[in-house]
Amino acid sequence: MTLTTTTAVTRADETSAPILEVLAARWSPRSYDPTVAIDEQALASVLEAGRWSPSAANTQPWRFIVARRGSEAFDKIVSNLMGFNQAWTPNAAALIVNLAETTDPDGKPRPMASYDLGQAVAHMSVQAHHEGLHVHQMSGIIAEGLRDAFSIPENFTALTVTALGTIDSPEALGEEGAIAREKAPRERFPLDELVLVNE
Ligand SMILES: Cc1cc2nc3c(=O)[nH]c(=O)nc-3n(C[C@H](O)[C@H](O)[C@H](O)COP(=O)(O)O)c2cc1C
User: Domain Nitroreductase spans what residues (predicted)?
Assistant: First the structure.
């Protein structure tokens, strides 16, 4: 067992083999500092990391709607999030709507679009953590509301929204349940349950 550093910010846990520090340290907070604006250079690097992600036949079936806190677009995104996501996201420095291109220009399905988009968002998340930002992905979104709000064409679907920002203390969330969730241990299935064959 390798024991990586555990701090309130990283919440890195034990890993059963050494992994990159940025991967061990990544976690998804909901408490963001409402006074800190997005670091534009960091945001540019995050988007660039997504751009260089691999995709099936290099189709790059991803598009992003980027909104900084205080913009009209940001408020439109927040109002198209579900339940609790609407409560904590307003303090994020930026929100990104992650769109998958589900069909090609001839109307043929792109079956790998969701896979490719997820991989692009994973690259972006790792880059964001490397830049000192924290990230929280959400599928609790109102995809059709986002379609209307941003006139998203039929061949694209909003799959997730990513919140990015500077982390704040768990207590800043105010509500007891939310504070407890923010501090709850991060858990994963053991590796031997995930690897089905390992000859
Ligand atoms: C595709 C996806 C959808 C998610 N949807 C939500 C969501 O709607 N609301 C939320 O608070 N967290 C959401 N999460 C965050 C997960 O709950 C979180 O990543 C998971 O519990 C693991 O925690 P960690 O990222 O801190 O390691 C989502 C994460 C992913 C990858």
Answer: 24-157
Note whether residue 137 is domain-resident.
Answer: yes
Mutate to test the pocket of ligand 1, among 95, 124, 136 (most ligand atoms within 8 A of CB): 136
Domain span holding position 91: 28-168+175-182
CA-closest residue to ligand 1 atom 15: 137
Q: Which ligand 1 atom is at minimum distance from the Cα of 82? A: 8
CATH code, domain carrying 164: 3.40.109.10
Q: Is the CB–ligand 1 distance for residue 137 below 6 Å?
A: yes
Amino acid at 25: A
Give 127-160 pLDDT, tens digit per residue: 999 999 999 999 999 999 999 999 999 999 999 9
Q: How many domains does the chain have?
A: 1
Rounded Cα distance between 197 and 103, Å, is 34
